[in-house]
Design goal:
With 705 residues, the protein is of the alpha/beta class. The protein is 24% helix and 23% strand. The strands form 8 sheets. It has a 9-stranded antiparallel beta sheet, with helices on one face. Strands 5-6-7-10-11-12-13-14 form an 8-stranded parallel barrel, surrounded by 4 helices. It has a 4-stranded antiparallel beta sheet with strand order 21-28-32-31, with no helix packed on it.
Length: 705
């Protein structure tokens, strides 16, 4: 999850003590903005909505088949989606009825086939909860009606729904909860064990899911387009959890001592009292700081680890049972996401493995405290690919419901094509980008409004269309081999004690380059240990066992990822420094860093296709954007128009069978043709054309045979 831009601004100002301000260098950059409203007025030559099987759910509820997501008639389906939120200025999570059809059509045009509603449990106008009340127990009728209408418009275009039940709910004293003023939004941790908070969660689930949508004529429990229901977002209990008040500490301590009475002998309990230095008739206390666990005797550590695991597991099992048996929901269930890669995620996974789908979250350089300009291609072993790959479990669908390479890192355009490619190598079932923020003002001046909003990013939005072509079609082959590992339950608990240097796998000796070559899965979290270990350095390049993906590194910090498949090819990173080419795609560019992506638009191999989509993106900035002199803090977010570093150079297309002419049509921010088409020159078996004018990030390529 992320923090609002207003909070980020406060953090930045707190960190920036007497720093020199400097304007972002904009030499060679030019305005290029997305214009979705104009784009809705006429057909686009790069519309990829044909990838969607509309209406969503027409084949029945999604199911699990052979360890993957499948439609009701048994066909494999992947989810390529976005989160819908309203963090940036002028945006709204639930659009007006006038805008609902427009935004649904826009998402479909870019190939989005799933929307994750993450913050519906906020108060109006941002969410569904009626803000006029002294409690959080009623949903606002007008907001709910708009949500129903928006959902119907999404489903009509082939877009599935993911509802998250507990994210940022502001529990109030009127809810009958203790110390409501001390609970964080969503009451993380506490909401997994407090009886009243669990009652309120079930009440909200009933209000949302058992509600009849008047526009689909279906309750959400009976709507096959509701693909996923998430019990909560990034919510877990681990050793060192700090209760928000003495009331909740006493409640949890009481539960712990009841658990001890069932799972430990009187002698073992007496020893725990002695370790904690309490009297023989006092409750055994819980450790209140994560740091205590490292020095705790094994008996105390094991007891608390087992207790927290059982509390989490029982909570998720109980909530799933309520959704299925009481409400009658037929949607697949996610418990919560493995999300903090600076710590071990295995305890969370152990507690949630009985759920239908396993989920992960990750960000490349999340800007919680400061922004770092650093390319992921230079650090493959800490990439989102590697971090996310630790959570996948054999026999279970795996989705990534939150991920981004946040703006304004100069290299953030690398994230979408890299993760789409390696997500297919890993055989994942869904990727949902965080986040898309619909603008409520038709006259909104387009610029990137916060670190996470991709809706007006002139590189990421075209990449979403190209990524949809790649991911939904499965253009990259799944890995030829699967590397499975298994842990004992003790190893799962002990992983919490490992130092941060073992991130993100928290498996000593595990070769972090393995997920860039093969599929990786967990076969067991409570079985016989089987762990891959290697002392060898990562090879260069890191070549997938399919030979379709290669990740090049170098001491000069000029990393490059290449994708070479029949229908999609790409060069991502320091293209000029590496001089690499794909089977049909080659470029010579002036840019130091860029992404050049090529996919067929007519489902044929590039060599035989009549229509192709080319996305070529470099750096993105807002006008007037300012940084401190160290380049670590944004001190002025800037404004419209957004600027791009145009990819300039020469594009070469090779091996186009029977081609008699090749023409590039630049596309504008509305998805419409921009200016005259650009002809290419034939040179033997190749077609060569110059890139750079007009200013754009994407092109339709027509091949006449």
């Amino acid at each position: 999850m992320r923090i609002p831009i207003a909070v980020i601004a406060i953090l930045l100002s707190a960190c920036a003590v007497r720093v020199e301000l400097s304007a972002q260098t904009t030499a060679g950059m030019a305005p290029f903005t997305m214009d979705h409203r104009r784009g809705a007025l006429s057909a686009s030559p790069v519309d990829v909505s044909f990838l969607l099987d509309a209406p969503a759910g027409k084949h029945g509820f999604l199911a699990v088949k052979n360890g993957h997501l499948a439609t009701g008639d048994g066909q494999r389906i992947r989810l390529w989606g976005v989160n819908i939120t309203d963090w940036s200025p002028g945006s709204r999570q639930i659009p007006s009825k006038d805008d609902a059809a427009f935004w649904a059509a826009t998402l479909a045009r870019f190939g989005v086939n799933c929307v994750r509603f993450q913050f519906l449990d906020l108060e109006t106008p941002r969410g569904l909860i009626d803000r006029q009340r002294a409690d959080s127990r009623a949903l606002d009728g007008e907001a709910f009606d708009r949500e129903d209408y928006f959902v119907a418009e999404l489903e009509r275009r082939g877009i599935y729904i993911d509802f998250n039940l507990l994210v940022g709910r502001p529990f109030k004293a009127g809810d009958g909860v203790q110390d409501a003023n001390l609970l964080r939004q969503g009451s993380k941790g506490t909401s997994l064990y407090d009886k009243r908070l669990i009652e309120l969660q079930k009440e909200y689930a009933q209000q949302l899911l058992d509600h009849l949508n008047p526009y689909t004529k279906l309750k959400y429990t009976a709507d096959p387009a509701v693909a996923l229901v998430e019990i909560n977002n990034e919510n877990a209990l681990n050793i060192g959890y700090r209760a928000p008040s003495p009331f909740y500490l006493d409640e949890l301590t009481g539960m712990y001592n009841q658990w001890l009475a069932k799972h430990r002998t009187p002698e073992e309990i007496a020893k725990l009292r002695a370790i904690a230095k309490v009297s023989v008739d006092a409750p055994v206390p819980l450790m209140q700081f994560r740091g205590q666990a490292a020095s705790a005797p094994q008996e105390r550590f094991d007891a608390e680890a087992g207790f927290y695991n059982d509390v989490q597991r029982d909570y998720f099992v109980d909530m799933e049972k309520y959704l299925r048996e009481t409400l009658g929901s037929r949607s697949l269930v996610i418990a919560t996401a493995d999300h903090s890669h600076s710590n071990s995620g295995y305890p969370v996974l152990l507690a949630t493995t009985s759920m239908d789908v396993i989920d992960g979250h990750d960000y490349w350089l999340h800007p919680e405290m400061y922004v770092r300009k650093s390319p992921m291609v230079n650090d493959p072993l800490n990439s989102t690919v590697v971090e996310l790959s630790r959570s996948a479990i054999a026999g279970k669908p795996y989705t990534v419901s939150e991920v981004n390479n946040p703006f304004p890192n100069d290299y953030d355009g690398e994230g979408i094509p890299i993760l789409a490619s390696y997500g297919l190598l890993q055989d994942w079932d869904g990727i949902m980008w965080y986040t898309f923020e619909p603008k409520i003002d038709p006259a909104w001046k387009p610029y990137v409004g916060d670190p996470f909003d991709i809706s007006l990013d002139p590189v990421k939005m075209p990449e979403m269309a190209e990524g949809a072509l790649m991911f939904l079609r499965g253009d990259v082959e799944k890995a030829h081999s699967i590397e499975e590992r298994s842990y004992s339950e003790q190893q799962v608990f002990d992983s919490m004690l490992l130092p941060g240097t073992e991130r993100p796998y928290f498996t000593p000796g595990f070769p972090l380059w393995l997920p860039l070559e093969h599929e990786v899965r967990i076969s067991s979290l409570n079985g016989t240990p089987k762990l891959r270990s290697s002392e060898n350095a990562a090879p260069d390049p890191l070549l997938s066992d399919t030979h379709q993906l290669a990740w090049y590194t170098s001491p000069q910090k000029t990393g490059l990822v290449t994708v070479d498949t029949p229908r999609t090819q790409a060069l991502i990173g320091f293209v000029r420094a590496n001089g690499k080419a794909d089977s049909n795609l080659g470029v010579e560019v002036e840019n130091t860093f860029c992404s050049v992506l090529l996919s067929s638009l007519d489902d044929k191999p590039i060599a035989e296709a009549s229509k192709l989509l080319l996305v070529a993106g470099g750096r993105v900035e807002n006008s007037g954007q300012e940084w401190n002199s160290a380049g670590t803090d944004v001190t002025n977010w800037g404004a419209s128009p957004t600027l791009i570093e145009q990819v300039k150079g020469t594009l070469t297309l090779r091996g186009l069978k029977g081609a008699r002419s090749v023409v590039l049509q630049p596309i504008d921010g509305a998805g419409q043709p921009e200016g005259a088409a650009i002809s290419s020159t034939r040179r033997g078996d190749s077609w060569v054309v110059s890139l750079g004018q007009p200013v754009t990030t994407w092109y339709e390529i027509s091949v006449l045979r």
